[in-house]
User: What shape does this take?
Amino acid sequence: MTDHDEVAVVGAGLAGCLLACFLARRGHRVTLYERRPDPRGGQAERGRSINLALSERGLDALRRIGLDKQVMADALPMRGRAIHPVSGPLDFQPYSSDGERAINSISRGALNNALLDAAESAAGVRVVFDHRLTGLDPRTGDMTFQTPAGEVSARAAVVLGADGAGSAVRGQLLAHAGLRESLDFLDYGYKEVTIPPRDGQFALDPGALHIWPRGTSMIIALPNPDRSFTCTLFWPTGGTGSFASLSSPTAIERHFRAHYPDLLDLAPGLVEDYQRNPVGLLGTVHCSPWQSGGRVALIGDAAHAIVPFYGQGANCAFEDVVELDRCLEETGGSWTAALPRYEERRRDNTEAIARMALANFVEMRDKVASPVFRLGKKVEHALERALPGRYVSRYELVSFSTVPYAEVQRRVRRQHQVLGGAVAGVGALLAGAIGTAVMRGRRRR
Ligand code: FAD
Assistant: This one.
């Protein structure tokens, strides 16, 4: 049995490291347990996204611990989407009405390492690698870990599960504390391929998130600081027209030549990447409750993993940390009061972003290619300019603000109702005016 911890955070990923930093600021003694070896200086884990889009919610959390500037130093701002049709020119669609606001492509590994450094150097934080949680008694805080040296035990007054979508802490709450869960897997998976630099430069515009929308499938590409792009292919996992249907190099090349003709030239190693890289699974985790007895709680993907199509999973996990910190502040540091309050405040919001992320998949893989969608975006941006602060698009509210996700959904619904009413009103006025003109014309005749 190791020392008695005040707080154990399980999982030194994005949420766990940030959480340790916030708790250290409040004066807690924290042990951060991570199943992997220390990732600093090592290779990125295969099968996880290499880069991710960081936006305002994530930045807001990083600002609070003074890490935003360091993280943003290597970020590549993407001000819109560049749509690649099967043939014809690229179409750039700005994210904001002024064309200036950007989401930021950053290296997941670099972000995790920066957060690990920050956690490790914070007073009162101890980081323990090669410790995979395998057992937990939620009533006592007794934990069991698998380590290279065998099984070890530890105990903590509070245990926080930041151990990702397949959370072992959630599994223990399921087994011992009445938690219920549902895992909604998408019938789509993802695979990463690389566009290397061309003559030392980016092969595509690094100021955009590139999308190849193809209806039932799509590829996106985000730039990396080494001037490569990481492309992620989203495709069904089974059946015809799926990852399962392509295996030979000839079939892979034929498929990409037909559907993504420009990509084969941009990514000369595409066929090898396709054959070598694994297919990752995608899904949404719903579970309840997130906490047990004010002693054990879940945070980030462990509580509510979502599909990646709004680029919000990590941003949302960071918001969880900010909210938990706020609840501890408001309750004078009482875990038994703070943990239920944190769950109550976050649940509606995480459910809202889970829904919006699923809806955005259809938008990205299909709608962005349509002229009607393009026109709609132009009208939306014109409205934002005409009614500043009063009409704000869903994308802007999600990506460039910290308005709670559930409020974003309500506000967008209200905006659409008002707009629908206004359009109907203008329609009625026009119909009335046309009717009067017709009557006058008839009387004159
Ligand atoms: P994780 O990052 O999964 O960290 C969990 C940690 O716990 C890991 O270090 C793991 O090793 C450790 N662990 C697991 N089990 C145990 C155990 N039993 N004992 C001890 N340690 C354990 N989000 C965005 O905001 N923007 C994006 O653009 C974006 N793109 C994405 C693209 C893809 C393809 C995918 C799959 C996800 C994307 N996400 C994105 C989502 C984002 O990656 C997650 O939401 C985020 O990583 C969640 O952070 P977390 O700390 O909760 O979990």
